[in-house]
From TrEMBL:
GO annotation (BP), single: ATP export
Subcellular localization, as worded in the UniProt entry: Membrane
Presence of keyword Transmembrane: yes
GO cellular component, as recorded: plasma membrane
Recorded topology in the membrane: Multi-pass membrane protein
Upper lineage: Eukaryota, Metazoa, Chordata, Craniata, Vertebrata
Keywords: Ion channel, Ion transport, Membrane, Transmembrane, Transmembrane helix, Transport
Entries under PANTHER family matching the protein: CALCIUM HOMEOSTASIS MODULATOR PROTEIN (PTHR32261), CALCIUM HOMEOSTASIS MODULATOR PROTEIN 1 (PTHR32261:SF2)
Region (Disordered): 263-285
Family: Belongs to the CALHM family.
Protein name, entry field: Calcium homeostasis modulator 1
Amino acid sequence: MDKFRIMVQFLQANQESFMNGICGIMALASAQMYSSFEFTCPCLPDYNYAYGIGILIVPAIWFFLLGFVLNNNISVLTEEWKRPVGKRRKDPAVLRYMFSSMTQRALIAPTVWIAVTLMDGKSFLCAFSPTADLSEFLNDSYSSLSKRELQKLQARIPCKDVFDGHEMISREAATRYIRCLSQACGWTFLMLITVAAFLIRAIRPCFTQAAFLKTKYWSHYIDTERKLFDETCKEHAKSFAKVCIQQYFESISGEIVPEIQLPAKKGKGSKDDDGEKQKSDEEKLLGIRKADDMNKVLWNWHTCKPGLLLNKQAAEMNGHAHLDNHKLSNELQKQTPTKSTAVVYYSKV
């Protein structure tokens, strides 16, 4: 259990590794789902194409949308896109980078599904068997059939149990021919996807390295800022609840008079520990002690986020107060003019 908890904490701390793991799991799930899926072609000219293309495209779209749903950055992107400008402007390049990163991860599972489906060839066979040119596998008796009857005959090729045209067409040869075309399409699809991924991952940073680093940095900043803000809100809510409950018990403790008052047992520094704990809880409140004030803080954070400009002077005063005071005292001593005092001696003579 501890190892599982450590692994979960590691994945939560490493967002990119976590999302890569999710994408890998979805890719394996898509392949496993296809292997366990029972493919049933209707073997009708009007329905074969819709069923075959639907099996090829619809699950891929579902995996694509699921990749966006499982990505935690989709809420960050939406919040950044819809928030008011306020004191911080919105950079479209950062939004495009975040969207492209999520899209690349979301396309992994659909790509695996389409590749596996084309390599297997069942959906391709079902979709294109009625309209494929199979004249090389037909004998001379097919000339007496009309175009509609020929489509019905070819539509039953994927269904081994209902096919009844063995004297007109070789079903095994036609099936192998269509599946060969499907596998060729599958390898071509994989090659195109691989080349596109190579161009996106390798060539794009070479042309706009500075812009790429800038957008990557600020996308990480937005994600990190949101996480830290949520953690600060959780700490404040926990401290607010602790202080509120402690004040509640302290307020009603005077109203309840016990019949027998037992002397309190002193533990190992329990009083000091409680005092330090209480102090830390008070500090975590950050001066916000009212519900209306907290609601105002949350509303202002959404409508008008602070500008990305740190006050260096305030940081130096807070971090190096003793050094500044020492320097200030030395400067004052140097700048203060020394007053000359006249000493008069009186002689008794």
